[in-house]
TrEMBL record:
It comes from Mycolicibacterium pulveris. It holds the Pfam family Molydop_binding. PANTHER family: OXIDOREDUCTASE YYAE-RELATED, TRIMETHYLAMINE-N-OXIDE REDUCTASE. This is Formate dehydrogenase. Gene3D superfamilies: 2.40.40.20, 3.40.50.740, ADC-like domains, Dimethylsulfoxide Reductase, domain 2. Residues 5-61 form the 4Fe-4S Mo/W bis-MGD-type domain. GO terms for molecular function: iron-sulfur cluster binding; metal ion binding; molybdopterin cofactor binding; oxidoreductase activity. Keywords: Iron, Iron-sulfur, Metal-binding. Belongs to the prokaryotic molybdopterin-containing oxidoreductase family. It comes from the Bacteria. The keyword Iron applies. Signal peptide: none annotated.
Length: 727
């Protein structure tokens, strides 16, 4: 009998466009993945990583059964043995030291699973209010979220460019041709950007490197970590040259005069030497942003991970506001699910978040907690520093912080001090190899999903949900199920969990499974296009999405505008511009110094065939004997007698690495670009990744509390001072 192959529509959850995919499945097992031609937005596009994911699902190096570390390495154990021991040891730690002794780090892929996100958060917070919660956001998004919290009163109100309607798109610190967009869910983003040019508009890329995106559009080179100066000078010009419709801006925002005096000293002539962008270009850009009716500035990773990420992000939004481009068609807009009562949810959530921001501080640096999480750059010190709330038990799910946070070696060593460490992952990575247990988890195609995290960043309002399209590989379990199991085991010993387990038990007796899935269903039903629990015939719910609309559905042609008053969590319903913390950051700009002996600046670099640290074990992605390379300007190389392919030593005030270098003219002189996510050193089980090796660029970044960004706890990952030598 011929094998029966089913083709199941679903979507990719490696990165943010969430491209439509068709999984060919035989007997519950994945045979192949191909792009979904019937997906309304990605319409037949998927990148190499999306296709290669079949190799991750079926990877022979994948962890299939729970692993426990023994004297001679990892050994397989049963789920029951693993969970029993973890539950017992965790309860003992909790009894002795309280919830402050427990930490959880959730990495980037966690954000792509609603159930995982809820599980990690509820579990950690459920332990008690002293527990530690870290996410990859402090290397990624916290500065963006805190800028939103300051401006709009609520961290989750994040404006995005109105991609499908704008005529001037200024993109700072982002390379969407390679990254496919971030804080901006837009399948086929490159095509959408070309559309702007086709309709007579412009796309301007502000970046120290003539990136793949800058090559395809207009490039304005900027010295790393100076974007806030450029933005202050743009604001200066707009105000000083009388371009601003002050009355209109004052209808949207409080503190306009405060902002005007904040940017007064920053003439474009005074910032040019630092930014490398001359005064005439600044004036022209300011004028274009004001006079083009549909214009937007957008910033992403490169503007989030500098020394003043929150300030830079705040200023991007301030430029959009002052230029008259906030919350208008083609400008910087708030995409939202438009859930019933969203306005009051924003007020309530904003109040809770702002309160925790004021009150909860890192015990190491005093940095305020950003959306309930602590700086991951300080995780090692949270483990090694004695005193109350010293971490003794650590969970890591969907993260590889030994490679992704500053000073991986420090963190690696710190893991050795833990009394209990548990990884939820499907690989033995540089991080999970340090743990006492590795619990095998399902990949995205082995679980149902609704991409909750990304609903508010959609350039075209869209909904898609999927069922699991495969049966779990080996004994893999979902994170939510693992946390549930652990919570049940703790319930007997930890009061918070007893209450939690009890409530769920009672609900179950009434036939209600109070799972994250139920919450997602309620969200879909109460949001734009939803069925309002039956009140709106033909409306959406989670089951209908997954079963009847498997390719997804566009719920509105464009992002709604004129919604600022709903997006703002302050009772004033207006943007709040005046903040002492922002003034402090501006103050610090003039006091920045660079230590002697580090004449160059390091920036990051994402590659089309990598996803942070975790896709280097796919033969398809690693073909051609791929290796990590740093990029350096030809003139800087020549000055140091360095030629293409040379191994060079890169030294920052914080560490040293050795990498091969490629020379290029597509960089500002003085800038060196180094990809992150490499540095596989044979401790993990991923054989191909180990062979490719590379260097961990985060040995060059700082885990010193003084280098953690003051307002949001962000790691400092760009513009790091370095020198480069032939070893
Ligand atoms: N192929 C691939 N795609 C990915 C990922 C991946 O690893 N590989 N990772 C995913 C993740 S986790 C994320 S968060 C997104 C990120 O996606 P993006 O936000 O697009 O980030 P990057 O691709 O890192 O591009 C950042 C750009 O900022 C520039 N830059 C560096 N410093 C500065 C600066 O000081 N000022 C300015 N103006 N520019 C600067 C860099 O040169 C670089 O071109 O990508 C996602 N997509
Ligand atoms: N120098 C420098 N450092 C950076 C960056 C940079 O640009 N420069 N970028 C930063 C950014 S934007 C980010 S987001 C972080 C990422 O930081 P992390 O999230 O800590 O690191 P990843 O490499 O993404 O590791 C993801 C891990 O999750 C596992 N995994 C994949 N899918 C699943 C799943 O469904 N469930 C579970 N449980 N595990 C899964 C993978 O096997 C892998 O071990 O790194 C940051 N670090
Ligand atoms: S662009 Fe991102 S979401 Fe789309 S197929 Fe590639 S990895 Fe998957
Ligand atoms: Mo990220």
């Amino acid at each position: 009998m011929a094998p029966v192959i089913e083709n199941k529509p679903t979507f990719c959850r490696i990165c943010e466009p969430l491209c439509g995919m068709v999984a060919s499945v035989e007997d519950g097992r994945l045979v192949a993945l191909r792009p979904d031609k019937e997906h309304p937005l990605s319409s037949g596009f998927a990148c190499q990583k999306g296709i290669a994911f079949a190799e991750v699902v079926n990877d022979p190096d994948r962890v299939r059964r729970p692993l426990r570390r023994g004297p001679t390495g990892f050994e397989e154990v049963t789920w029951d043995e693993a969970m029993d021991d973890i539950g017992g040891r965790l309860s003992a730690i909790l009894r002795r030291h309280g919830s402050g002794a427990v930490g959880w780090y959730m990495g980037n892929p966690g954000a792509f699973s609603y159930a995982h996100t809820f599980a990690a958060l509820l579990f950690t917070k459920g332990l008690g209010r002293h527990s530690h919660y870290f996410t990859a956001s402090s290397q990624d998004t916290n500065s963006r979220l805190i800028a939103s919290q300051l401006l709009y009163g609520v961290p989750t109100s994040v404006p995005i460019p109105d991609l499908t309607r704008t005529d001037l798109l200024v993109m700072m610190g982002t390379n969407p041709v390679v990254s496919h967009g971030s804080f901006l869910t837009a399948p086929r983003i490159k095509d959408r950007m070309h559309d702007i040019v086709k309709r007579g508009g412009r796309v301007v890329i502000i970046d120290p490197r003539r990136s793949e995106t800058a090559t395809a559009f207009e490039w304005l080179g900027i010295v790393p970590d100076t974007d806030s100066l450029l933005l202050l000078s743009l604001l200066h010009v707009m105000f000083a040259d009388g371009m601003v419709d002050v009355a209109a801006v004052k209808r949207q925002a409080d503190g306009v005069d405060w902002l005007r005096s904040l940017c007064r000293p920053f003439t474009p002539e005074s910032t040019a030497a630092s930014t490398g962008i001359d005064a005439d270009s600044v004036r022209a850009l300011a004028r274009d942003l004001v006079t083009t009716p549909r214009a937007a500035v957008y910033g992403r990773l490169g503007t989030c991970v500098g020394t003043h990420g929150t300030l830079t992000t705040y200023l991007i939004d301030a430029v959009n506001l002052v230029a008259g481009n906030l919350d208008v068609p083609g400008g910087s807009v708030f995409s939202s699910m438009h859930t019933l009562g969203a306005r009051w949810q924003n007020v309530a959530m904003g109040a809770v978040m702002r309160r925790s921001y004021r009150r909860k501080r890192s015990r190491i640096s005093g940095t305020p907690s950003a959306i309930g999480s602590e700086p991951a750059a300080l995780m090692a010190k949270e483990i090694t520093t004695p005193g109350e709330r010293k971490i003794r038990a650590m969970f890591v799910s969907a993260g590889n912080p030994v490679l992704s946070v500053p000073n991986g070696e420090e963190l690696e060593a710190a893991f050795g001090e833990l009394e209990l460490s548990v990884a939820l992952d499907f690989y033995v990575t540089e991080t999970s190899t340090q743990c006492d247990y590795i619990l095998p988890v399902t990949t995205m195609y082995e679980r149902d999903d609704f991409p909750y995290t990304f609903q508010s960043f959609q350039a075209t309002p869209f909904r898609q949900a999927t069922k699991a399209v495969l049966t779990p590989v080996g004994e893999a379990r979902e994170e939510w199920a693992i946390v549930e199991d652990l919570a049940r085991r703790l319930a007997r010993r930890v009061p918070a969990f007893a209450a939690y387990a009890g409530v769920r038990q009672v609900l179950r007796m009434f036939g209600v499974d109070a799972s994250p899935r139920l919450m997602m269903d309620a969200l879909v039903r109460m949001s734009e296009g939803g069925d309002r629990f039956g009140l709106r015939r033909g409306g959406l719910n989670l089951r209908r999405l997954a079963e009847e609309l498997p390719h997804g559905v566009v719920v509105a042609p464009h992002v709604r505008t004129g919604v600022l008053r709903q997006a703002v969590g302050y009772l004033s319903r207006r943007v709040r511009l005046a903040h002492p913390g922002i003034a402090d950051e501006v103050d610090k700009l003039s006091r920045r110094t660079v230590p002697d002996g580090y004449p160059l600046r390091m920036v990051g670099l994402r590659e089309p065939r990598s996803e942070n640290s975790w896709m280097h074990n796919s033969p398809l992605l690693m073909r051609g004997d791929r290796r990590q390379h740093a990029l350096m300007h030809v003139d800087d190389a020549a000055e140091r007698d360095i030629v293409d392919g040379d191994e060079v030593r890169i030294t920052s005030p914080f560490g040293t690495i050795t990498v091969p270098v490629l020379t290029t003219k597509d960089l500002l002189p003085g800038v060196v670009a180094v990809p992150h996510g490499w540095g596989h050193k044979g401790t993990g089980s991923w054989r191909l990744a180990n062979r490719a090796g590379g260097a961990n660029v985060n040995q060059l970044t700082s885990s010193d509390p003084a280098d953690v960004e003051a307002l949001s706890g962000m790691a400092w990952l760009t513009g790091v001072p370095i020198r480069v030598e032939r070893p």
